[in-house]
Task: structure prediction
Amino acid sequence: MTNFRDKFVMCKFSKIFLLVPLFLFLMSCKGTNSFSTHAYWTEIPEISANENDLPAKFKAYNLDIDNLKLSVEDNNALEIPSPLGELLVVNIKSSSTMSPALAEKFPEILSYEVLNSETVSSGRIDINPSGFYAMIKTGSETYFINPVKKGGEEYVCYFKGDANENSKNPYFEQNNN
Result:
């Protein structure tokens, strides 16, 4: 038969064994991708744009840009879509391309460098009043994310090779080999 002291010690250790895993789980959530609770990209079946203004192949998304901006402020990582329909987690670092005086004059223009990871080799992301713009390199492929209309919620995500000569794609190159 156990005495009171043994029961007290066992009860105390039981609580610790229950609380430690919970504490570790909560701490691991805090330090990692807490942005994943922000659902800012939603794949959509179609978009409201002239077919000639679009790349040959693409995935279409709605973007909640305000939620994305909050996530960027809180994290050094971001979820972005791929032309294959996946959401990729990329590590980002603030990297303004403007002089400090110009950046101070236009604080709404944000620029980030996409850092090398398992899924992405490099890239650039810009967020400004016209929308979210990304150029992402994944090994031998390059893809883009652009708004369909400036300031709109609809975005296209496509590989560089799918750019259409007639589209209003700002990244189209005549020699797209």
About this structure: The chain has two domains: 1-31, 35-162.
